């Protein structure tokens, strides 16, 4: 089978499509023919390994797993003899931020991974884009107690995480302000925000209005910059550790605080994220934003685009197209 393969860390130039053996499912595993996957921030972090903490997970000097990919949409083609959740022919999608090796024509995974069935009317490209951003967005939301009418500022409303968060926050009844470029304002409003701030012209931290929560989906601000626009018991959450990993330390310190504080949205329980987002998608209350779709032989270009930090929503790669 064909797979996108890398043996050293670096830019998209270290990737190559090569033939490798098709995996065989174990007793509790399923074999999936992959039709689509995304190229996302997690994939890029694993590719470049610029953060030292990433190398602790992926390999200190070189990648332990040479095939990237954290999400997928495809068809079950074979199952192990002890599998009970799925059967051949099932259209499924799934996610694991520790890696699934889904940038390949086939993958094997445990039936106990975070997996959902794809609704009949949904394309593989849309299903592939359901998971990653929504999982991280939901893990912001489940760390706090949102009440209907709470005012929330989403810094970075057009990324995969931010665009998913806006739609999920609408589900929870929040009033949303989101930062974005001027040309993306209409999209962000369509997703459910009530107001946008053009971050290229305005500094949202200098606004007078105060929010119950600030979601920094791009990790480009800090708690101290945002503190004055938080309500007296407001909470700041960020997708990044922050300068000198301050968000993790502040989150621990603020366990003992009754004032403005920080929570770190450590992502967990991807199956719960899959279940929620699948339900909302079925109800047409959630639709992932897809910026570009690339054929598999252009996966380098897909990575280059994501690494440029210019994408809006998700970038999808089509892998098998013979359905």
TrEMBL record:
SUPFAM superfamilies: GroES-like, NAD(P)-binding Rossmann-fold domains
Coiled-coil residue windows: none
Domain Enoyl reductase (ER): 10-317
Protein name (Swiss-Prot/TrEMBL): NAD(P)-dependent alcohol dehydrogenase
InterPro entries linked to this entry: ADH-like_N, ER, GroES-like_sf, NAD(P)-bd_dom_sf, YIM1/Zinc_Alcohol_DH_Fams
PANTHER family on file: ALCOHOL DEHYDROGENASE RELATED, ZINC-BINDING OXIDOREDUCTASE
């Amino acid at each position: 089978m064909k797979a996108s393969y890398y043996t050293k860390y670096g830019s998209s130039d270290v990737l190559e499509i090569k033939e490798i053996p098709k995996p065989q499912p174990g007793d509790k595993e399923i074999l999936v023919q992959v039709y689509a996957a995304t190229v996302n921030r997690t994939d890029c972090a694993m590719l470049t390994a610029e953060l030292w903490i990433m190398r602790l997970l992926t390999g200190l000097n070189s990648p332990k797993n040479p095939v990237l990919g954290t999400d997928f949409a495809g068809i079950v083609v074979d199952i192990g003899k002890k599998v009970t959740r799925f059967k051949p022919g099932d259209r499924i999608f799934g996610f694991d931020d520790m890696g699934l090796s889904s940038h390949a024509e086939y993958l094997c995974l445990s039936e106990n991974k975070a997996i959902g069935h794809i609704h009949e009317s949904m394309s593989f490209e849309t299903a592939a884009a359901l998971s990653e951003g929504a999982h991280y967005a939901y893990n912001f939301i489940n760390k706090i107690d949102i009440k209907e009418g709470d005012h929330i500022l989403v810094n970075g409303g057009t990324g995969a995480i931010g665009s998913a968060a806006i739609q999920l926050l609408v589900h929870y009844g929040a009033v949303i302000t989101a930062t974005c470029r001027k040309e993306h304002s209409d999209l962000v409003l369509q997703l459910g925000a009530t107001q946008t701030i053009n971050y290229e012209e305005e500094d949202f931290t200098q606004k007078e209005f105060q929010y119950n929560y600030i979601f920094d989906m791009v990790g480009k601000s800090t708690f101290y910059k945002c503190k004055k626009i938080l309500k007296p018991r407001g909470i700041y959450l960020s997708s990044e550790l922050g300068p000198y990993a301050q968000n993790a330390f502040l989150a621990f310190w603020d366990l003992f605080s009754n004032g403005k504080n920080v929570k770190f949205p450590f992502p967990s329980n991807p199956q719960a994220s899959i279940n929620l987002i699948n339900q909302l998608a079925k109800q047409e209350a959630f639709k992932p934003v897809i910026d570009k779709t690339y054929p598999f032989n252009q996966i380098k270009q897909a990575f280059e685009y994501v690494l440029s930090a210019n994408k809006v929503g998700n970038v999808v790669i089509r892998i098998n197209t013979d359905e």
